[in-house]
């Protein structure tokens, strides 16, 4: 995330070497969906949340879906990437316990909580 040093936190996917990298075929969308995707990508690029990958090893399509209250939501299709990542035997505890455990800490992120993802 922009502005957070990798010394604080960093994340790496453990991809099984038995799986070959997968590049999904490009999906085609109508003009409304293309415009919604372009708007979202431009917004994320402008705040340096994403950057262009010149030679991606894994490539996942963007999926655009209509929100219940209007507008669009952009997601990524990580089906093939998820198949290549080994499953974690130690799943996360309940999310409300994690939120409660962060009380009184100096750093706390509620990224995307306002959008209803959590």
Give a quick summary of the entry:
The chain has helices at 31-46, 79-84, 95-101; strands at residues 62-66, 72-76. With 118 residues, it is of the alpha+beta class.
Structural summary, described in words:
This protein has 118 residues and is α+β, with helices and mostly antiparallel strands. The chain has a domain at 31-88. It has helices spanning 31-46, 79-84, 95-101; strands at 62-66, 72-76. Strands 1-2 form a two-stranded antiparallel sheet. The radius of gyration is 17 Å and the shape is globular. The mean pLDDT is 80. InterPro entries: DNA/RNA_pol_sf, RNA-dir_DNA_polymerase. This is Transposable element protein.
List the helices and strands and how they pair.
Elements: H1 31-46, E1 62-66, E2 72-76, H2 79-84, H3 95-101
Antiparallel strand pairs: 1-2
Organism: Prunus dulcis
InterPro entries: DNA/RNA_pol_sf (IPR043502), RNA-dir_DNA_polymerase (IPR053134)
Protein name: Transposable element protein
Instruction: Report the biggest beta sheet as strand number plus sense, adding barrel if it closes.
Output: 2 strands, antiparallel
Radius of gyration: 17 Å
Strand order of the largest sheet: 1-2
Give the percentage of residues in beta strands: 5-15%
Shape: globular
Task: Tally the beta strands.
Answer: 2
Mean pLDDT, all residues: 80
Q: What's the SSE pattern? A: HEEHH
End-to-end separation = 18 Å
Structural class: alpha+beta
Helix content: 10-25%
Weakly predicted, low-confidence segments = none
Q: What is the tally of helical segments? A: 3
List its traits.
118 residues, alpha+beta, two-stranded antiparallel ribbon, 8% strand, globular
